Input
Amino acid sequence: MRKVKKNNRVLVAMSGGIDSSIAALLLEEQGFELVGITMKTWDYSTAGNNSKETGCCSLDSINDARELAVSRGFPHYIIDIREEFEGSIVSNFVSEYMVGRTPNPCILCNTFIKWEALLKRADELDCYYIATGHYAQLKEEAGRYYVTKGIDGGKDQSYVLWGVSQENLARTMFPLGDFHKSEIRDLARKHGFDNLANKRESFEICFIPDNDYRGFLKREVEGLEQKVDGGDFVLTDGTVVGKHGGFPFYTIGQRKGLIAMGKPVYVNEIDAENNRIVIGPREELLGDKMLVGKLNWQKYSSIDDGMKVEVQIRHHDPGSTARLYNEPNGVIRVEFDQPVSAITPGQSAVFFENDDVIAGGFIVKRI
Output
Protein backbone atom coordinates (compact mmCIF):
# COMPACT_ATOMS: atom_id res chain seq x y z
CA MET A 1 0.00 0.00 0.00
CA ARG A 2 1.21 3.47 -0.84
CA LYS A 3 2.15 5.86 1.92
CA VAL A 4 -0.72 8.18 2.85
CA LYS A 5 0.22 11.62 1.58
CA LYS A 6 -2.43 13.93 3.06
CA ASN A 7 -4.42 12.47 5.94
CA ASN A 8 -5.70 9.25 7.45
CA ARG A 9 -9.32 9.65 6.30
CA VAL A 10 -10.62 7.39 3.53
CA LEU A 11 -13.98 7.66 1.79
CA VAL A 12 -15.19 4.10 1.14
CA ALA A 13 -17.70 3.41 -1.62
CA MET A 14 -20.17 1.00 -0.02
CA SER A 15 -22.73 -0.83 -2.14
CA GLY A 16 -23.99 -2.98 0.71
CA GLY A 17 -22.39 -6.10 -0.76
CA ILE A 18 -19.65 -8.25 0.68
CA ASP A 19 -16.73 -6.81 -1.27
CA SER A 20 -17.09 -3.14 -0.39
CA SER A 21 -18.05 -4.04 3.18
CA ILE A 22 -14.94 -6.13 3.77
CA ALA A 23 -12.83 -3.47 2.04
CA ALA A 24 -14.04 -1.07 4.73
CA LEU A 25 -13.25 -3.53 7.52
CA LEU A 26 -9.74 -4.15 6.19
CA LEU A 27 -8.99 -0.43 6.07
CA GLU A 28 -10.36 0.01 9.58
CA GLU A 29 -8.06 -2.73 10.85
CA GLN A 30 -5.13 -0.94 9.21
CA GLY A 31 -5.89 2.16 11.27
CA PHE A 32 -7.61 4.38 8.73
CA GLU A 33 -10.41 6.72 9.72
CA LEU A 34 -13.38 5.80 7.55
CA VAL A 35 -16.30 7.62 6.03
CA GLY A 36 -18.78 5.44 4.15
CA ILE A 37 -20.76 6.56 1.13
CA THR A 38 -23.42 4.85 -0.98
CA MET A 39 -24.53 6.10 -4.37
CA LYS A 40 -28.12 5.95 -5.56
CA THR A 41 -27.91 5.66 -9.32
CA TRP A 42 -31.27 4.44 -10.54
CA ASP A 43 -34.95 4.38 -9.58
CA TYR A 44 -37.13 1.77 -11.24
CA SER A 45 -40.38 3.36 -10.09
CA THR A 46 -39.87 6.16 -12.62
CA ALA A 47 -38.69 3.95 -15.48
CA GLY A 48 -41.69 1.79 -16.28
CA ASN A 49 -39.98 -1.30 -14.88
CA ASN A 50 -41.73 -3.28 -12.17
CA SER A 51 -38.71 -5.45 -11.40
CA LYS A 52 -37.36 -5.55 -7.88
CA GLU A 53 -34.40 -3.22 -7.41
CA THR A 54 -31.14 -5.08 -7.09
CA GLY A 55 -27.47 -4.53 -6.39
CA CYS A 56 -26.08 -1.08 -5.71
CA CYS A 57 -29.38 0.64 -6.43
CA SER A 58 -31.67 -1.20 -4.02
CA LEU A 59 -33.03 0.13 -0.76
CA ASP A 60 -31.98 -3.13 0.94
CA SER A 61 -28.38 -2.67 -0.17
CA ILE A 62 -28.31 0.94 0.99
CA ASN A 63 -29.64 -0.14 4.38
CA ASP A 64 -27.06 -2.94 4.60
CA ALA A 65 -24.25 -0.45 3.97
CA ARG A 66 -25.59 1.96 6.59
CA GLU A 67 -26.02 -0.80 9.17
CA LEU A 68 -22.43 -1.94 8.77
CA ALA A 69 -21.13 1.61 9.13
CA VAL A 70 -23.23 2.19 12.25
CA SER A 71 -22.10 -1.10 13.77
CA ARG A 72 -18.45 -0.11 13.28
CA GLY A 73 -18.94 3.44 14.46
CA PHE A 74 -18.05 5.45 11.35
CA PRO A 75 -20.28 7.94 9.49
CA HIS A 76 -22.21 6.96 6.39
CA TYR A 77 -23.75 9.15 3.70
CA ILE A 78 -26.06 8.51 0.75
CA ILE A 79 -25.68 10.58 -2.40
CA ASP A 80 -28.25 10.79 -5.15
CA ILE A 81 -26.58 10.75 -8.58
CA ARG A 82 -29.59 9.55 -10.56
CA GLU A 83 -29.74 12.65 -12.71
CA GLU A 84 -26.08 12.42 -13.74
CA PHE A 85 -26.36 8.67 -14.23
CA GLU A 86 -29.40 8.84 -16.48
CA GLY A 87 -28.09 11.85 -18.37
CA SER A 88 -24.81 10.19 -19.34
CA ILE A 89 -24.74 6.43 -18.72
CA VAL A 90 -28.29 5.49 -19.67
CA SER A 91 -28.51 7.90 -22.60
CA ASN A 92 -25.18 6.59 -23.92
CA PHE A 93 -26.40 3.00 -23.54
CA VAL A 94 -29.45 3.74 -25.67
CA SER A 95 -27.66 5.86 -28.27
CA GLU A 96 -24.89 3.28 -28.78
CA TYR A 97 -27.40 0.52 -29.53
CA MET A 98 -29.23 2.85 -31.87
CA VAL A 99 -26.12 3.23 -34.04
CA GLY A 100 -25.31 -0.48 -34.06
CA ARG A 101 -22.68 -0.60 -31.32
CA THR A 102 -22.69 -2.62 -28.09
CA PRO A 103 -21.87 -0.49 -25.02
CA ASN A 104 -20.48 -1.42 -21.62
CA PRO A 105 -22.21 0.95 -19.17
CA CYS A 106 -20.30 -0.27 -16.11
CA ILE A 107 -17.01 1.01 -17.54
CA LEU A 108 -18.51 4.39 -18.38
CA CYS A 109 -20.02 4.60 -14.92
CA ASN A 110 -16.68 3.90 -13.25
CA THR A 111 -14.88 6.43 -15.39
CA PHE A 112 -17.28 9.33 -15.65
CA ILE A 113 -19.70 9.02 -12.74
CA LYS A 114 -18.54 7.08 -9.69
CA TRP A 115 -14.93 8.23 -9.44
CA GLU A 116 -15.81 11.85 -10.07
CA ALA A 117 -18.70 11.76 -7.62
CA LEU A 118 -16.58 10.03 -4.97
CA LEU A 119 -13.67 12.45 -5.23
CA LYS A 120 -15.98 15.45 -5.12
CA ARG A 121 -17.48 14.17 -1.85
CA ALA A 122 -14.06 13.14 -0.56
CA ASP A 123 -12.93 16.75 -0.87
CA GLU A 124 -16.05 17.95 0.93
CA LEU A 125 -15.50 15.45 3.75
CA ASP A 126 -11.73 16.03 4.12
CA CYS A 127 -10.81 12.57 2.82
CA TYR A 128 -7.75 12.42 0.58
CA TYR A 129 -8.22 8.81 -0.56
CA ILE A 130 -11.22 6.89 -1.81
CA ALA A 131 -11.50 3.09 -1.64
CA THR A 132 -13.62 0.58 -3.54
CA GLY A 133 -14.23 -3.16 -3.39
CA HIS A 134 -12.76 -3.93 -6.81
CA TYR A 135 -10.51 -6.97 -7.18
CA ALA A 136 -7.52 -5.13 -8.61
CA GLN A 137 -4.22 -3.69 -7.45
CA LEU A 138 -2.62 -0.32 -7.98
CA LYS A 139 1.01 0.55 -8.63
CA GLU A 140 3.05 3.70 -9.06
CA GLU A 141 6.16 3.84 -11.24
CA ALA A 142 8.05 6.76 -12.73
CA GLY A 143 5.36 9.12 -11.55
CA ARG A 144 2.53 7.22 -13.25
CA TYR A 145 -0.27 5.29 -11.58
CA TYR A 146 -1.73 2.18 -13.14
CA VAL A 147 -4.04 -0.70 -12.39
CA THR A 148 -2.64 -4.20 -12.26
CA LYS A 149 -4.55 -7.46 -12.02
CA GLY A 150 -5.83 -8.79 -8.70
CA ILE A 151 -4.40 -12.10 -7.55
CA ASP A 152 -7.77 -13.85 -7.88
CA GLY A 153 -7.91 -14.44 -11.62
CA GLY A 154 -11.55 -15.45 -11.46
CA LYS A 155 -12.57 -12.15 -9.87
CA ASP A 156 -10.01 -9.75 -11.38
CA GLN A 157 -11.65 -6.46 -12.40
CA SER A 158 -8.72 -4.61 -13.96
CA TYR A 159 -10.49 -4.68 -17.34
CA VAL A 160 -13.31 -2.42 -16.13
CA LEU A 161 -10.92 0.13 -14.60
CA TRP A 162 -8.99 1.16 -17.71
CA GLY A 163 -10.76 4.51 -17.92
CA VAL A 164 -9.80 5.88 -14.50
CA SER A 165 -7.51 8.87 -14.94
CA GLN A 166 -4.04 9.44 -13.49
CA GLU A 167 -5.35 12.12 -11.17
CA ASN A 168 -8.06 9.85 -9.83
CA LEU A 169 -5.87 6.74 -9.54
CA ALA A 170 -3.44 8.73 -7.39
CA ARG A 171 -6.17 9.02 -4.77
CA THR A 172 -7.54 5.48 -4.98
CA MET A 173 -7.15 2.35 -2.84
CA PHE A 174 -8.15 -1.22 -3.73
CA PRO A 175 -7.99 -3.16 -0.43
CA LEU A 176 -9.13 -6.46 -1.98
CA GLY A 177 -6.50 -6.71 -4.71
CA ASP A 178 -4.30 -9.23 -2.92
CA PHE A 179 -7.16 -11.43 -1.66
CA HIS A 180 -9.10 -14.31 -3.17
CA LYS A 181 -12.89 -14.18 -3.02
CA SER A 182 -12.94 -17.22 -0.72
CA GLU A 183 -10.76 -15.32 1.76
CA ILE A 184 -13.16 -12.37 1.67
CA ARG A 185 -16.09 -14.66 2.50
CA ASP A 186 -14.07 -16.16 5.38
CA LEU A 187 -13.33 -12.68 6.70
CA ALA A 188 -17.03 -11.81 6.60
CA ARG A 189 -17.85 -14.85 8.71
CA LYS A 190 -14.94 -14.12 11.06
CA HIS A 191 -16.37 -10.65 11.74
CA GLY A 192 -19.86 -12.04 12.31
CA PHE A 193 -21.35 -10.94 8.99
CA ASP A 194 -22.71 -14.30 7.83
CA ASN A 195 -25.42 -12.46 5.89
CA LEU A 196 -22.72 -10.89 3.71
CA ALA A 197 -20.85 -14.15 3.24
CA ASN A 198 -24.01 -15.81 1.96
CA LYS A 199 -25.34 -12.86 -0.05
CA ARG A 200 -26.06 -13.52 -3.71
CA GLU A 201 -23.96 -11.48 -6.09
CA SER A 202 -25.64 -9.47 -8.85
CA PHE A 203 -24.16 -9.65 -12.33
CA GLU A 204 -26.86 -7.74 -14.22
CA ILE A 205 -26.57 -4.17 -15.42
CA CYS A 206 -27.90 -2.21 -12.46
CA PHE A 207 -30.66 -0.47 -14.42
CA ILE A 208 -31.71 -3.70 -16.20
CA PRO A 209 -32.29 -6.17 -13.32
CA ASP A 210 -34.26 -8.58 -15.51
CA ASN A 211 -31.29 -8.69 -17.94
CA ASP A 212 -33.65 -7.87 -20.82
CA TYR A 213 -31.89 -5.01 -22.59
CA ARG A 214 -34.24 -5.32 -25.57
CA GLY A 215 -37.24 -4.64 -23.37
CA PHE A 216 -35.40 -1.71 -21.82
CA LEU A 217 -34.70 -0.18 -25.23
CA LYS A 218 -38.35 -0.56 -26.20
CA ARG A 219 -39.39 1.34 -23.07
CA GLU A 220 -36.78 4.07 -23.58
CA VAL A 221 -37.24 4.72 -27.32
CA GLU A 222 -40.79 5.59 -28.26
CA GLY A 223 -42.02 3.63 -31.25
CA LEU A 224 -38.75 1.71 -31.54
CA GLU A 225 -40.25 -1.53 -32.86
CA GLN A 226 -42.14 0.27 -35.61
CA LYS A 227 -39.00 2.19 -36.61
CA VAL A 228 -36.70 -0.81 -37.00
CA ASP A 229 -38.91 -3.84 -37.65
CA GLY A 230 -38.58 -5.69 -40.94
CA GLY A 231 -34.95 -5.15 -41.80
CA ASP A 232 -32.99 -7.66 -43.84
CA PHE A 233 -30.80 -10.53 -42.77
CA VAL A 234 -28.05 -10.66 -45.39
CA LEU A 235 -25.00 -12.78 -46.11
CA THR A 236 -21.54 -11.26 -46.45
CA ASP A 237 -22.01 -10.96 -50.21
CA GLY A 238 -25.24 -8.98 -49.73
CA THR A 239 -27.69 -11.79 -50.49
CA VAL A 240 -30.95 -11.22 -48.60
CA VAL A 241 -31.98 -14.38 -46.71
CA GLY A 242 -34.73 -13.18 -44.38
CA LYS A 243 -36.26 -10.48 -42.21
CA HIS A 244 -35.34 -9.51 -38.65
CA GLY A 245 -37.02 -7.59 -35.84
CA GLY A 246 -34.70 -4.59 -35.73
CA PHE A 247 -30.93 -4.06 -35.63
CA PRO A 248 -30.75 -2.77 -31.99
CA PHE A 249 -31.90 -6.18 -30.78
CA TYR A 250 -28.81 -8.04 -32.02
CA THR A 251 -25.16 -8.19 -30.98
CA ILE A 252 -22.00 -9.36 -32.74
CA GLY A 253 -21.50 -13.10 -32.24
CA GLN A 254 -25.15 -13.79 -31.46
CA ARG A 255 -26.43 -17.17 -32.61
CA LYS A 256 -29.89 -17.51 -31.05
CA GLY A 257 -32.91 -15.72 -32.49
CA LEU A 258 -31.69 -15.68 -36.09
CA ILE A 259 -33.07 -17.72 -39.00
CA ALA A 260 -32.81 -21.37 -39.99
CA MET A 261 -30.04 -21.83 -42.55
CA GLY A 262 -29.42 -25.56 -42.25
CA LYS A 263 -26.23 -24.84 -40.31
CA PRO A 264 -25.27 -22.54 -37.43
CA VAL A 265 -24.97 -18.87 -38.34
CA TYR A 266 -23.92 -15.88 -36.26
CA VAL A 267 -24.28 -12.11 -36.34
CA ASN A 268 -21.15 -10.89 -38.10
CA GLU A 269 -21.95 -7.20 -38.61
CA ILE A 270 -24.66 -4.68 -37.69
CA ASP A 271 -25.51 -2.12 -40.38
CA ALA A 272 -27.61 0.40 -38.48
CA GLU A 273 -27.88 2.88 -41.32
CA ASN A 274 -29.62 0.34 -43.56
CA ASN A 275 -31.22 -1.75 -40.77
CA ARG A 276 -29.36 -4.84 -41.97
CA ILE A 277 -27.86 -7.72 -40.00
CA VAL A 278 -25.00 -9.53 -41.71
CA ILE A 279 -24.91 -13.21 -40.74
CA GLY A 280 -22.63 -16.09 -41.60
CA PRO A 281 -20.68 -19.09 -40.30
CA ARG A 282 -18.48 -18.87 -37.23
CA GLU A 283 -15.28 -18.41 -39.26
CA GLU A 284 -16.59 -15.09 -40.59
CA LEU A 285 -16.56 -13.76 -37.02
CA LEU A 286 -12.78 -14.00 -36.96
CA GLY A 287 -10.62 -10.95 -37.43
CA ASP A 288 -6.97 -10.08 -36.87
CA LYS A 289 -7.05 -6.26 -36.94
CA MET A 290 -9.10 -3.52 -35.29
CA LEU A 291 -9.03 0.17 -34.48
CA VAL A 292 -9.37 1.42 -30.89
CA GLY A 293 -10.11 5.03 -30.00
CA LYS A 294 -10.81 7.38 -27.05
CA LEU A 295 -7.91 5.86 -25.13
CA ASN A 296 -6.95 6.46 -21.53
CA TRP A 297 -3.27 5.82 -20.85
CA GLN A 298 -2.19 4.36 -17.51
CA LYS A 299 1.23 2.67 -17.25
CA TYR A 300 2.65 4.64 -20.17
CA SER A 301 1.63 7.91 -21.79
CA SER A 302 2.31 6.56 -25.29
CA ILE A 303 3.77 3.54 -27.09
CA ASP A 304 6.25 2.84 -29.88
CA ASP A 305 4.89 1.20 -33.00
CA GLY A 306 5.04 -2.58 -32.83
CA MET A 307 4.81 -2.87 -29.05
CA LYS A 308 3.76 -6.40 -28.07
CA VAL A 309 0.90 -6.67 -25.57
CA GLU A 310 -1.96 -8.85 -24.40
CA VAL A 311 -5.35 -7.48 -25.43
CA GLN A 312 -8.71 -8.19 -23.84
CA ILE A 313 -11.70 -7.34 -26.02
CA ARG A 314 -14.39 -8.21 -23.47
CA HIS A 315 -14.67 -8.84 -19.74
CA HIS A 316 -13.27 -12.24 -18.72
CA ASP A 317 -11.64 -12.62 -22.13
CA PRO A 318 -8.40 -14.57 -21.49
CA GLY A 319 -6.56 -12.13 -23.75
CA SER A 320 -4.74 -12.44 -27.05
CA THR A 321 -1.23 -11.44 -28.10
CA ALA A 322 -1.08 -8.46 -30.43
CA ARG A 323 1.07 -5.55 -31.57
CA LEU A 324 0.03 -1.91 -31.37
CA TYR A 325 0.53 0.82 -33.96
CA ASN A 326 -0.20 4.53 -33.74
CA GLU A 327 -2.78 5.96 -36.13
CA PRO A 328 -3.86 9.60 -36.61
CA ASN A 329 -6.12 11.33 -34.08
CA GLY A 330 -5.03 9.23 -31.13
CA VAL A 331 -6.34 5.96 -32.57
CA ILE A 332 -4.45 2.68 -32.08
CA ARG A 333 -4.36 -0.08 -34.69
CA VAL A 334 -4.25 -3.52 -33.11
CA GLU A 335 -2.82 -6.44 -35.10
CA PHE A 336 -3.39 -9.81 -33.44
CA ASP A 337 -0.92 -12.66 -33.79
CA GLN A 338 -3.87 -15.01 -34.33
CA PRO A 339 -7.43 -14.17 -35.40
CA VAL A 340 -9.89 -13.50 -32.57
CA SER A 341 -13.64 -13.95 -32.58
CA ALA A 342 -16.41 -11.35 -32.38
CA ILE A 343 -14.58 -8.01 -32.36
CA THR A 344 -17.46 -5.80 -31.26
CA PRO A 345 -17.60 -2.02 -31.88
CA GLY A 346 -18.52 -0.16 -28.72
CA GLN A 347 -16.93 -2.68 -26.38
CA SER A 348 -13.68 -1.94 -24.56
CA ALA A 349 -10.24 -3.14 -25.56
CA VAL A 350 -7.64 -3.12 -22.79
CA PHE A 351 -3.89 -3.47 -23.40
CA PHE A 352 -1.81 -5.32 -20.79
CA GLU A 353 1.92 -5.65 -20.23
CA ASN A 354 2.09 -8.79 -18.11
CA ASP A 355 -0.57 -7.97 -15.47
CA ASP A 356 -0.35 -4.19 -15.83
CA VAL A 357 -2.89 -2.01 -17.65
CA ILE A 358 -1.09 0.04 -20.27
CA ALA A 359 -4.20 1.68 -21.68
CA GLY A 360 -7.74 1.01 -22.75
CA GLY A 361 -10.24 2.40 -25.21
CA PHE A 362 -13.35 1.69 -27.22
CA ILE A 363 -13.33 -0.58 -30.25
CA VAL A 364 -14.08 1.53 -33.32
CA LYS A 365 -14.24 -1.23 -35.91
CA ARG A 366 -12.73 -4.43 -37.22
CA ILE A 367 -10.49 -3.88 -40.21
Q: What stands out?
A: Residues 105-124 form the longest helix (20 residues). Residues 92 and 103 are 8 Å apart (CA to CA).
